[in-house]
Amino acid sequence: MAMKNSGAGSPGSVVLWDEGYHGHDVISTRTFGFWLYMLSDAMIFATLFAAYAVLASHTAGGPTAQNIVHPWYAFGETVLVFSSVLAFGFSMTALKAASRPGVIGWMLLALVLGAGFLGLEIHEFVGLAMRGIVPARSAFLSSYWALVLTHGLHMALGLIWMLVMMYQVMRYGFSTDVVARLLSLKYFWLFQAVMWVCVFTVIYLHGAI
Amino acid sequence: MLVDLQGSWSPLWGRLSLSEVPYHNIIVVGAFLFAAVLGAAILGGITYAGKWGYLWREWLTTVDHKKIGVMYILFGLVMLFRGFVDALMMRTQQMMAAGPHAAGFLGALHGYLPPSHFDQIYSAHGTIMIILAVTPILVGLMNIVVPLQVGARDMAYPYLNAVGLWLTVVAGALVMLSLFLGDFSHAGWVGLAPLTELPYSPNVGVDYWMWAIQISSVGTTLGAINLIATIVKMRAPGMSWGRLPIFTWTSLSTNIIALSSFPVLAVALFLLSFDRYLGTHFFTPGLGGDLMLYTNLFWIWGHPEVYFVVLPAFGIISEIVPTFSEKPLFGYITMVIASMAIAGVSWSVWLHHFFTMGEGPAVSLYFSVATMLVGIPTGVKVFNWAFTMYRARIRYDVPMLWAIGALILLLTGGLTGMMLAIPAINYTVHNSVFVVAHFHNMFLLIAFAAMGGVNYWWPKVFGYKLDEKTGRLVFWYWVAGTVAVFVPMYTLGFMGMTRRLDYVAHASWLPLLQLEEGGIALYCLALYYQLKQIYVSIRDRAVNRVGADAWGTSRSLEWMTPSPVPFYNFAVAPLVHARDEWAWRREHGYTNLRPPRYVDIHMPRNTAVPLVIGAFAFALGFGLIWRIWWLGALALIGIVATMIIRAADTDTGYVIPAADVARMEEQAGGQAPSGARKVLS
Ligand code: HEM
Ligand SMILES: [Cu+2]
Predict the structure, then answer these.
(1) Which of B267, B318, B444, B616 lies 20 to 30 A from B387 at CA?
(2) Does residue A98 fall inside a structural domain?
(3) pLDDT for B181 beyond 80
């Protein structure tokens, strides 16, 4: 077999190399990876929900879901989560307009609302603990605490992340890295809201009946 | 909210105390001396050769997917050795402790290992082999090969890749540490609940097991994200889905399994740790806990996990067989569908691990049928490989030997799996060594394929082939050992021998146990020749140098890069025209591997951050295991802070100017493809 010329430009021959190809789009690759991470996070929640479903009736003579959940209180938390997501949405609209004050301001609001949610949640669980309704009491309470607080932990991490991003926007503006992180944070925050809806329905609404 | 512990605890040292060092156990002391001497020799050797700087710059801080892959494999091989020593000890114990008149030594009633020690050994053996040996070796191969096969410059997230490696290594370090400080779990690699609960396992053994798996699974999940993103986002121009090599396809499906199943394991273990640390009641016998919940969660991960390790093995076979049959793979499309189908089915069969739970005929029937369904896609694969070899001019090079060996093991192991899938049979052999023989059969298929993969891609990574003659000896001794250990084990299973016995009541089983011990001796010979093969190959590397296409008849993109592969992989992105691009080019005579023109290359910079995160993860694991809260808290803060600081680093890449690329390519010799066999494609 004779070696043929593989030169890209030479007429009549096949193009074998693509010098113009500069690889993938950084932002979409990064957000795709984050989206994959969230799939695994969704599996974590799914497993916790499954454990809760199995153990919900295992109250071992202790308090039942009906005894401890307050749907209206949790509804207040729901309102906070949703308004935080809304504020974050406005922050992303400001990102499209490349407005630093807009992004930071709205994110600050999202952060405050999220912190309000967390405050309510902490208040609820401190109250439970004071009344001796602790995870060590029964399998039901174990799974109740684990599921709700896993969500709470995600919310807390989201708030820390927002703080970091507000600083980064201030410091670096809208660099590729920063934009990719902002978009990932958007998915993350929305995802936590979706998870909260599941928690609210399965634990607080269903638990009350 | 913390549980009350039996035994002492102090805020500064947690549960640590000098009495936790098992210096009175002569076997452990021996192991420690061995490790210490070996470690000192290695560290001393590095210092003597003045290689610390080189090691730091070129390996410890690297983000190059090939080097990370090599380190994964090296780590996996070291752990494979450790797991093998465990196996040797267990086999020897069972041979020495058969029958009521068997003599006892070193404080054991029979044999030389008291039950508490024997139990730790089998638990460590299983955990190490699955999580820390086979998985890292396969992840390492995927790391090296997948970016090359899709024509990418590196993985999608090179930095994350290094984090995954160091987390895996940290898990291994924790398991090794458990030998010399405290103890290891005695509850089996599956962590039988409620034996793993604090009242029944009050020492740190279960904690070592739990946190080591937890840390390494984070690494595996990060790796899965990385590989999926690399395959989806980083393919070279023209590399459409229909042109993806099968190894890459199986990597994709296997990592989808990992991404979706490892979180289930993580939750199962977290709930267990809540039980052990906070006194919750997820899996306890009292206060509503449900131990079957643990068993279900574990196997919902556990069964997909076995396919997570077998699919890359299938991928390796699918690369080796066509190369040495000098033909394209038969049935590409069915191969792709089968890989995805296996991933899907793997999710719906977990209950076959505990048919004896007694959930009723309807449930058993469903899981029995679902399990057998796996035979269809697997059968498709076996036939495809067979048809690829049919009427081919097969060359029995070492990788091909391993692939064929793997095929035969797949047949036997798959068939015994089918037997186990029948509840009526399962009720009689469940928890017997028949099951042990079945899954070792399957894992050995994976190990065979991995050995084939290492022999196959070694020249790509290092630029020279592994020695052929010693390689054959390794293979045949390994085959002989496998037959000698596992055929008697199947037999003993039928005869009623249950698993995990530190004492074998029937003296009449002794001959079969001795036969198994003989098999272990054969494995030892294989190990000797393995070390010799590596030694001889490095010594003779000048003679065994190869060009880009080391085997002369390879087919996929990785064989279009010089051997060893330059750190930037492809100087210019290849334009892909066909499935089996390199075979296509060879057939059409486009074998000149030099692009007409070079361009600037963007590369990620080396970084020590992954290593730092690994160090913190070690401290975190250690603090949690010994309940040294301040250490754990500091380590956690350290990890978060490191990540935040890293996020502020804007200088994570650099550019190699086109002129430099041209010079480096010139030095690599613009390698001509070697071998240049005339082939039909
Ligand atoms: C793909 C490679 C495979 C691997 C790595 C593998 C591995 C394993 C492992 C680790 C166990 C049980 C471990 C334990 O109890 O500690 C097991 C048990 C089992 N395997 Fe496999 N297996 C594989 C393929 C198959 C196939 C193809 C089938 C059937 C079609 C099958 C059917 C079973 C059954 C029914 C059991 C349960 C036996 C019992 O505990 O009674 N396996 N296998
Ligand atoms: Cu299974």
Answers:
(1) B444
(2) yes
(3) yes
pLDDT score recorded for residue B204? 95
- Using most ligand atoms within 8 A of CB, pick from B367, B420, B494 the residue to mutate for ligand 1: B420
Whether B595 contacts chain A with CB within 8 A:
yes
Query: How far apart, in whole angstroms, are the C-alpha atoms of residue B447 and residue B441?
Result: 10
> From CA B297, how far away is CA B268, in angstroms rounded?
6
Q: Do residues B156 and B229 touch, judged by C-beta distance below 8 A? A: yes
Task: Name the burial class of residue B100, with classes exposed (0-12), middle (13-18) and buried (19+) by CB atoms within 10 angstroms of its CB.
Answer: exposed
Residue B196 to residue B185: CA distance in whole angstroms: 8
A147 lies in which domain range? 25-205
Other residues' Cβ atoms within 10 Å of the Cβ of residue B237: 15
User: Does the pLDDT at position A194 exceed 70?
Assistant: yes
User: Is A182 part of any domain?
Assistant: yes
CA distance A204 to A206: 6
Among B122, B138, B439, the mutation site with the greatest number of ligand 1 atoms within 8 A of its Cβ is B439
Indicate which ligand has the atom closest to the C-alpha of B413.
Answer: 1
Please indicate, yes or no, if residue A7 is contained in any of the structural domains.
Answer: no
Mean local confidence (pLDDT), A153-182: 95
User: What pLDDT does residue B675 have?
Assistant: 42
How many domains does chain A divide into? 1
Chain segment B462-480, per-residue pLDDT in tens:
999 999 999 999 999 999 9
Distance from the first to the final alpha carbon of chain B: 68
| Neighbouring residues of B680: CB distance < 8 A, sequence distance ≥ 6 | B326, B327
Restricting to A residues 94-113, those with a Cβ less than 8 Å away from any Cβ of B are none
By CB atoms closer than 10 A (0-12, 13-18, 19+), residue B636 is middle
Give the position of tokens 């999220």.
Answer: A114
- Interchain contact, B590 vs A1, CB within 8 Å: no
**Encoding tokens for residue B247?**
């190894």
Q: What is the sign of the dihedral through the CA atoms of B74, B76, B82 and B87?
A: negative
Is position A4 within any domain?
no
CB B187 within 8 A of CB B204: no
Q: Kindly state the tokens that stand for B598.
A: 């070079």
Which chain B residue has its CA at the smallest distance from A47's CA? B264
Q: List, as one string, the DSSP characters of A126-164.
A: HHHHHTT--GGG-HHHHHHHHHHHHHHHHHHHHHHHHHH
The three-state secondary structure class of A70 is coil
pLDDT band per the 50, 70, 90 thresholds, residue A14: confident
Of B225, B287, B597, the CB nearest to A139: B287
> How do strand B601-604 and strand B573-574 relate by DSSP bridges?
unpaired
Beta-bridge mates of residue B602: B655
Going from the Cα of B493 to the center of ligand 1, the distance in angstroms, rounded, reads 15
CATH number at A192 reads: 1.20.120.80
Examine the pLDDT at B530 and tell me if it is beyond 90: yes
CA angle B526, B531, B533 (to 5 degrees): 90
Give the pairing type, strands A17-18 and B573-574: antiparallel
H or E stretch covering A185: helix A176-199
Class (C level, CATH) for B18-545: mainly alpha
Cβ(B435) to ligand 1 under 6 A?
yes
